[in-house]
Write a structure and sequence with these properties.
heterodimer; A: alpha/beta; five-stranded parallel beta sheet; 9 helices; B: alpha/beta; six-stranded parallel beta sheet; 18 helices; 11 strands
Chain lengths: ~210, ~375
């Protein structure tokens, strides 16, 4: 099983899939296989944080995980996600950029978060509704345009006006977004990368405020 | 503006490129939508006619008074479709009249297209791709822009506005293919079918720079963009970057330098990891333009004697900061990156919502240094 984790860390997609098939044939449970894959994901996350791995490895490993789960007849909901903390994610109103957001969604999902991706050009009221529907504690707002900063602020204000702010950790991210901007908008933190989004979310999960 | 200072301003920039001391720190303005705001145009009006975009640039440059050049003189959103190989939403056409154009990255290219590029060549492939998958209206807009370039250059010259680029640039294969496939799919291709991707990149190279260099010379442009955004170091494992980004970018830069033009390495995102590699580029011949993500002080340490640095006032600061904050930030940049081999500049484009006073503060900090 350690070998499976190692193959994932090395981005050896075909070998990972072969190892998953072999493990199942040898009688390993899906739970054990998933656990090993998640060990690999954590190792990849550590390497990213250490500056050894980059966005390409995060993206490719999330894709390998997805295919490995498919080999088990499962999808990403198998990664403890059904019981994982709900994370409402979206690109705010007046902005349609989604690649960064999609990468964050993929990496969060691979790390056990139950991501509710609202898409792009999302009005504040949709964030409010999603937080209520899923009883979420985590919100991520993405944008690439400085003209969407106001939409971020309006979304945070809408959550506050709806009486939801205190139950939430709200993170902002995207190309021009800075920690200073997060402060100005009333968010809890800015995430500069997909892995940092995971780190911030995990800290929030264990109760460390940003 | 047409007061005889044009040559002096361009000479100041050329001295910075040569990493020589200048009488004052040069400033180059880089903007499209912001020019529309300064000129009092809606973004739809700005996009309706590329000559109007040039007139807006002239108005914006005049409003600043003491900058040394506009980086580019005109714009049409269709150019983004060609660069990104995807659709772009255009103000007044696809979205409200005063909302900024936006690239709609939707992965219109397929894996089979790598073989098509090899078989047909890049020009033929891209022409067909834009017409069939992006939309013929984009091809029409691009053709209209191209035919306007002589009138644009004449207008800009008559106004006495110094400029670095009259309209042409070279984009490395990585950026075209990444935009066309979308980033995630392209990363999968780099791992799964690397030889196919490489074959397509090699097939693209012969057609990427030649005509664009000739077009740049015809407009009297001293400089020429050879940019990078998704090919940034932070995006890619080093082996992928070394195989699929650096050799192609370097070749384009060398072709541009050989043609007597100044490559502007417009680098969005973080290239810090690989800064040392750019010492292999021709000495004192390029401008590295950074957007605030790359560590510009590290760039100074590694490249300061080799290459002119330009940047990197962040978009969020220009958009949301105060004039004093902008002035302080630029003052610190001048102290740390100047005096020789440095040009004050925004990180990528001046954001459309940057207050005029913030841009004036950016320029004033360079003038005051």
């Amino acid at each position: 099983m350690d070998e499976l984790s190692k193959l994932l860390v090395e981005m050896r997609e075909d070998d990972v899939l072969a190892a998953v098939r072999a493990a199942r044939q040898a009688g390993a449970s899906a739970t054990d296989v998933i656990g090993t894959l998640q060990d690999g994901m954590r190792a990849i996350g550590d390497k990213y944080s250490a500056g050894e791995y980059f966005l390409s490895e995060l993206i490719m490993s999330a894709e390998i995980i997805k295919r490995a789960l498919a080999e088990l007849g499962l999808d990403e909901t198998a990664l403890d996600n059904a019981g994982g903390p709900a994370y409402i994610l979206g690109t705010v109103r007046h902005d349609i950029h989604d690649i960064g957001k999609n990468i964050v969604a993929s990496v969060l999902g691979a790390n056990g978060f139950r991501v509710i991706d609202l898409g792009v050009d999302v009005p504040p009221e949709s964030f409010v509704a999603a937080v209520r529907e899923h009883n979420a504690g985590l919100v991520g707002l993405s944008c690439l345009l400085t003209t969407a900063f106001d939409s971020m602020g309006q979304t945070i204000e809408a959550l506050r006006a709806a009486g939801l702010r205190d139950q939430l950790d709200i993170f902002v991210g995207g190309g021009p977004v800075t920690s200073r901007l997060a402060e100005q908008l009333g968010a809890d933190a800015a995430g500069a990368s997909a892995q940092e989004a995971v780190t911030l979310a995990e800290r929030a999960r264990v109760g460390e405020r940003s | 503006m047409n007061d005889g200072s044009l040559d002096q301003r361009l000479q100041r920039i050329l001295r910075a490129v040569a990493v020589e001391p200048t009488d004052r720190i040069p400033v180059v303005l880089c903007a499209a939508g912001w020019c529309a705001r300064v000129a009092g145009l809606t973004l739809a009006d700005y996009c309706s006619d590329s000559l109007r975009s040039a007139q807006a640039a002239i108005a914006a440059f005049a409003a600043i008074e003491t900058a040394d050049a506009m980086e580019y003189v005109a714009f049409d959103p269709a150019l983004l479709s060609y660069a990104w190989m995807t659709k772009v939403r255009i103000p007044g056409v696809d979205q409200p009249a005063d909302e900024l154009w936006q690239v709609e990255e939707s992965g219109l290219m397929e894996p089979a297209d790598y073989d098509r590029i090899v078989a047909d060549g890049w020009d033929e492939f891209q022409t067909g791709f834009i017409a069939e998958r992006v939309g013929p209206e984009i091809a029409e807009r691009a053709a209209a822009y191209e035919s306007s370039v002589p009138a644009i250059i004449e207008t800009v010259r008559a106004a006495g506005m110094p400029y670095l680029m009259g309209g042409a640039d070279a984009i490395m294969p990585f950026e075209y293919l990444c935009g066309g496939r979308s980033f995630s799919q392209f990363v999968y291709d780099l791992y799964r079918i690397p030889d196919k991707v490489e074959a397509a990149m090699q097939a693209m190279m012969p057609q990427l720079s030649g005509p664009a260099i000739e077009a740049a010379k015809a407009t009297g442009s001293p400089a020429f963009w050879v940019g990078g955004w998704r090919g940034a170091s932070e995006m890619l494992a080093r082996p992928l970057w070394e195989r699929f980004v650096f050799p192609y970018h370097k070749q384009l830069v060398e072709e541009v330098v050989a043609a007597g033009l100044i490559p502007i390495l417009h680098f969005d995102s973080d290239w810090t990891r690989d800064l040392a590699r750019f010492r292999e580029y021709p000495e004192k011949s390029c401008i590295m333009s950074l957007d605030g993500r790359t560590d510009i002080r590290k760039a100074k340490e590694i490249l300061g004697d080799h290459m002119c640095l330009m940047g990197d006032v962040p978009a969020a600061l220009l958009s949301r900061g105060t004039p004093d904050e902008v002035h302080d930030y630029v003052g610190q940049l001048v102290a740390d990156i100047g005096p020789a081999g440095y040009i004050v500049h925004s990180g990528c484009d001046i954001p459309v919502d940057a207050p005029l006073d913030n841009v004036k503060a950016m320029v004033a900090a360079a003038n005051d240094a």
